[in-house]
Specification:
The structure holds two protein chains of two kinds. By secondary structure, chain A is mainly α. Chain A is built from eight helices and no strands. Chain A has two domains: about 55 residues; about 70 residues, Arc Repressor Mutant, subunit A. In chain A, helix 1 packs across helix 2, helix 2 packs across helix 3 and helix 4 packs across helix 6. Chain A starts with a helix and ends in a 15-residue tail after the last helix. Chain B is globular, with a radius of gyration of 16 Å. Chain B folds into two domains: about 80 residues, 2,3-Dihydroxybiphenyl 1,2-Dioxygenase, domain 1, CATH 3.10.180.10; about 70 residues, 2,3-Dihydroxybiphenyl 1,2-Dioxygenase, domain 1. The chains are: A mainly alpha, B alpha/beta.
C-alpha cells in the first residue's frame, strides 16, 4: 500500500510544482490532472489528501504570495499585479488577497518597499506553506 | 574547529535508481559504494570536488518501519528539505542537456541578482537547484567578506 501512496504523492508534487511554475497562466483542473497523470475526478481528492488543501486553494495562495512580492518590490499598479499573477478579476483578487493576508493589496503595499536584495531572491524561492491552514507568510 | 563539510546526507527511496539519476543523468561520480551489511554506504561527489553526498534510504536499523514509511512519504511530498545546490559555468547549457535526458525541472533558468539558476526534482521528490553565479557575487548564504569561489 505504501508504495502506491509514494507514487501518488510524487504525482501530486508534480502538479504542485506546475502551479508554482505556471501560476500566471490560466491553469485548470484538467491540465493539472494531466500533469499528475490521474483522472480529473481523482485529482482534487488526492491532492487534498496529500497536501491538506485543494489545488485551487494552493494556486490561489501561490498567486497571492507572488502578488505580495510584486506589490512591494515593483511599482506596478494593483490591477497589473492582479493580472500578472494570474487572476482575471480584480474583485476575486482583492477578496482572495484580503482573506489570505488579512489586509487589502493597497494597504499591504503601504508597508513599504522591500529593502534588502537578498530578501527579494529569498522570496522568489519561497513557496507558501501547503500543509494545513497556514496562511501566507507576511514579510515584515 | 571545523575546516570543511565533508559528507551530507539525502534520503532517496531506491539506491539503484538514485545512482541512475545522480551519476547517469546529473553527472556526479560514485565516491564509495560499499555493502556494510546493515546498510549500503553509497556516496557521490561532483567530479573534482571532495564533498560527498550520502544517498541513504530511510529504514532499519536507524529507523523503525513505521517511521521509515513516514520519512518515505515526506520525501515524495517534497517535504524533507534535503536540498542540494550545485554551481555550473553555463546554466542554460546544463539545463538543456539535462532536459534532453528527461530530468524533471521545476523552474527554467531565471536571472537573479547573484546569477542564473534553475530548479529540478530527483525521481523521489528531493529539490535540487543549480546556479551559474555572477563572477563577482558572493556564494549564496556566505557573508559578504568571504570571496567568491571562482567558477570552474
Amino acid at each position: 500500500m505504501s508504495r502506491a501512496v509514494e507514487e501518488l504523492n510524487r504525482r501530486m508534487l508534480r502538479a504542485r510544482d506546475a502551479m508554482d511554475r505556471a501560476y500566471a497562466q490560466p491553469l485548470d483542473i484538467p491540465q493539472l490532472a494531466r500533469v499528475a497523470n490521474v483522472s480529473e475526478a481523482h485529482f482534487i481528492r488526492t491532492f487534498r489528501g496529500t497536501f491538506d488543501e485543494t489545488p485551487h486553494r494552493y494556486l490561489q495562495r501561490r498567486r497571492v504570495e507572488r502578488a505580495m512580492y510584486l506589490l512591494r518590490a515593483t511599482e506596478r499598479s494593483v490591477t497589473d499585479v492582479c493580472l500578472d499573477v494570474g487572476f482575471t478579476s480584480l474583485g476575486t483578487f482583492s477578496r482572495s488577497f484580503r482573506h489570505i493576508v488579512g489586509e487589502a493589496p493597497a494597504t499591504y503595499r503601504r508597508r513599504g518597499p522591500i529593502k534588502a536584495v537578498p530578501n527579494c531572491f529569498a522570496m522568489a524561492w519561497t513557496r507558501p506553506s501547503s500543509f494545513g491552514e497556514a496562511v501566507a507568510r507576511k514579510i515584515v | 574547529m571545523f575546516n570543511a563539510l565533508l559528507i551530507s546526507s539525502l534520503y532517496v527511496l531506491d539506491q539503484d535508481k538514485a545512482l541512475d539519476f545522480y551519476v547517469g543523468k546529473l553527472g556526479l561520480e560514485v565516491n564509495t559504494d560499499q555493502d556494510l551489511g546493515f546498510m549500503r554506504w553509497l556516496t557521490v561527489n561532483v567530479p573534482g570536488d571532495a564533498r560527498q553526498v550520502l544517498l541513504e534510504t530511510p529504514g532499519a536499523p536507524g529507523l523503525d518501519p513505521k517511521t521509515a514509511e513516514q520519512a518515505r512519504e515526506l520525501v515524495t511530498k517534497g517535504a524533507t528539505g534535503g536540498h542540494l545546490f550545485f554551481t555550473t559555468t553555463d546554466c542554460w547549457k546544463t539545463y538543456n542537456e539535462l532536459r534532453a535526458k528527461g530530468v524533471e525541472f521545476t523552474e527554467e533558468p531565471t536571472e537573479r541578482p547573484y546569477g542564473i539558476d534553475c530548479g529540478l526534482r530527483d525521481p523521489f521528490g528531493n529539490h535540487i537547484r543549480f546556479s551559474q553565479p555572477l563572477a563577482a557575487a558572493a556564494p549564496v548564504g556566505s557573508d559578504e567578506k568571504r570571496s567568491a569561489r571562482p567558477s570552474k
